[in-house]
Predict the 3D structure of the following.
Amino acid sequence: MLSPDAIDIRVDVDPVHWFLNDKDDTRSSFYLEDAATEFQVRGLELDWIGVAWDGDLRSAESGWTHHYFRGDRWCNITSAQNRRSLVNAYRVLLTRARQGIVIYVPRGDSNDSTRSPDIYQPTYDYLTGLRIPVLE
């Protein structure tokens, strides 16, 4: 659930404006107003990217767990093909940057069961365990 953090991937960005316009245009990627999805950046290499890591792919002691959000709760993805598609979406996003990448993992909110810190903390711990620097 990234929408509480003002990240809405349901917005259909116009790639002409998003990729080509400069920092004076609020429709461009410079403003970070709209997030592009893995489908919108497929096949492109970008100088810098930011990846917002949601609760759909979670690190766990037993490996990665796969989820989707329906209604008011997270559900497990049972289809092997859908699990592969989810992992592939993150692979696409994590391999687009030429110069650098920032990975954002939400802190969660203990007052919201759909965004519990328990959903995000194991993934944060996994990524920092890879020695990915933390930006404060």
About this structure: Helices lie at 15-20, 80-94, 117-129. The mean pLDDT is 86. The radius of gyration is 15 Å. Residues 3-129 form one domain.
